[in-house]
Amino acid sequence: MQVYTTENEQVDAIKRFLSTNGKYLAVGLVLGIGALIGWRYWQTHQTNQLHDTAAVFEKLNKSLQSGSKESVVAVEKFANETNNVYGVMAELELAKQAITQNNLAQAEKNLLAASGKAKDEDMQALFNIRLARVQLSEDKTDAALKTLELVKGKGWKVMVENIRGDILTKKGDIAGARAAYSMGLGSDGPKLIKDLMKIKLNNLSN
């Protein structure tokens, strides 16, 4: 490494460096500024786009309450084309609509789609719990048990074991159902669900 003994030598060295590398530094600076501006623009664009999507979802969701075929088709199109939280919510609303019409097969499809789109683990857990309930209503007991295995997190334990007990009861596995309800009662969770499990457990004993 060169050592410059005078101020003039240092200045001359800097000049030579800028002369040789100046254009590269300028390009780097421009690219850096461009990247920053681009990032801010993208963030603003994403925020604006999400706001617009929210407005569209709200409008479509209101129209869905009518139950008309046209409104269902419009929400389905929105759900298929929207890969964010509002697309997930649209699938959930379609599932609710299908359940009110006793179309469990369609509700299952919507809940599967919602679970696949959801990025948040708690949202995935909620959708899978609802999906397991629908599958149980369809007598798809083995599929419902597999769906419950996808639910992670201790906070969902009591709800999972409550449904698992119901599924095993339907399958005729009384010992398994009793174990599931007992495990649920030993977990933290809403008192209402635990009270229901106590009743179910007592009925199994009888």
Please count the helical segments: 9
* Spatial separation of the terminal alpha carbons: 90 Å
- Tell me the strand percentage band: under 5%
User: How would you sum up the global shape?
Assistant: globular
Give a short account of the largest sheet.
none
Assembly context of the chains: single chain
Average pLDDT figure? 78
How many strands appear in the DSSP assignment?
0
* Rg computed from alpha carbons, rounded to a whole number of angstroms: 29 Å
Task: Give a written overview of the molecule.
It is found in: Cell membrane. InterPro entries: SecYEG/CpoB_TPR, TPR-like_helical_dom_sf, YfgM. Pfam families: TPR_21. It comes from Xenorhabdus vietnamensis. There is one protein chain. With 206 residues, this protein is mainly alpha-helical. Among the domains are: 72 residues; 64 residues. Helix 5 runs parallel beside helix 7 and helix 6 runs antiparallel to helix 7. The longest helix is centred in the N-terminal third of the chain and has 58 residues. The N and C termini lie far apart (90 Å). The mean pLDDT is 78.
Nutshell version of this structure?
The chain is mostly helical and 206 residues long.
Key features?
mainly alpha; globular; 82% helix; 9 helices; 206 residues
Topology at a glance:
Layout: H1 7-64, H2 69-81, H3 85-100, H4 104-117, H5 121-137, H6 141-148, H7 157-171, H8 174-185, H9 191-205
Helix pairs in contact: 1-2, 1-3, 2-3, 3-4, 4-5, 5-6, 5-7, 6-7, 7-8, 8-9
